């Protein structure tokens, strides 16, 4: 049976640029609870690709498929799990071409007492640990980058482009995942405080109230000139928000 203490929330809003141009939200997020654990995933379809909204939704579904297989055999190598995500993604985007559906992929899998994290491409994963030493951020440092290239799911599987981590669920209080429409507007030193404040504010809320407040907050994003879609999701342990 899954650990009943764990829950999730999330939301996504279309960016002003896509509203003006009549394009769909190219972000996606999904979360599911299984008898063996929970999975939360967010994905950002690359804006230059014509079917990136298809790619981001397929990325979420592909992670669920791979997580089910991983739960059935946790002795599997994590690289093989990433390869399985890629394979399921290729199947789920058909009949579209991979080059037209490229998307990032960020996930958290809670399976049998272990939280497994994966990040491919832009966006951020913030782990709120039971202590400061257990907390960490998985994200790109764009200030140090000399390229506009974004790693993503595409026709070729490239395991070295993935960043992964694991943490004992007893040492983890929450995992926040967001696309770069949110993370790029945060100063590096503010990313963890931002994630902690969100967890603290939303942990005890009624789900309907939380959903409405989250959409209001994302829709009124306070950064001047923002244009991108915005998606955020959280896997959290009830009763431990600080």
UniProtKB/TrEMBL annotation:
InterPro entries: PPM-type-like_dom_sf, PPM-type_phosphatase-like_dom. SUPFAM superfamilies: PP2C-like. Gene3D superfamilies: PPM-type phosphatase domain (3.60.40.10). It comes from Geomonas paludis. Residues 14-218 form the PPM-type phosphatase domain. Pfam families: PP2C_2. Coiled coil: none annotated. This is Protein phosphatase 2C domain-containing protein.
């Amino acid at each position: 049976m899954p650990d009943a203490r764990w829950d999730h929330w999330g939301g996504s809003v279309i960016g002003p640029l896509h509203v003006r141009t009549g394009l769909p939200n190219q972000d996606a997020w999904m979360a599911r609870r299984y008898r063996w654990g929970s999975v939360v995933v967010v994905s950002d379809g690359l804006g230059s690709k014509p079917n990136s909204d298809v790619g981001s939704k397929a990325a979420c579904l592909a992670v669920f498929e791979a997580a089910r297989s991983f739960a059935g055999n946790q002795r599997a190598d994590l690289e093989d799990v990433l390869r399985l995500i890629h394979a399921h993604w290729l199947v789920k985007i058909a009949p579209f071409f991979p080059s037209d559906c490229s998307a990032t992929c960020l996930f958290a899998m809670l399976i049998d007492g272990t939280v497994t994290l994966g990040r491919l491409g832009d966006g951020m994963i913030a782990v709120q640990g039971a202590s400061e030493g257990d907390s960490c951020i998985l994200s790109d440092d764009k200030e140090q980058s000399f390229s506009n290239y974004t790693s993503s799911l595409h026709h070729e599987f490239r395991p070295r482009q993935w960043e992964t981590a694991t943490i004992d669920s007893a040492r983890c209080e929450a995992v926040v995942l967001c696309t770069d429409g949110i993370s790029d507007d945060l100063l590096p030193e503010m990313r963890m405080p931002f994630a902690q404040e969100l967890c603290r504010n939303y942990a005890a809320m009624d789900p309907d109230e939380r959903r409405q407040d989250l959409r209001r907050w994302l829709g009124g994003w306070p950064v001047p000139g923002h244009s991108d879609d915005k998606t955020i999701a959280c896997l959290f342990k009830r009763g431990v928000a600080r």
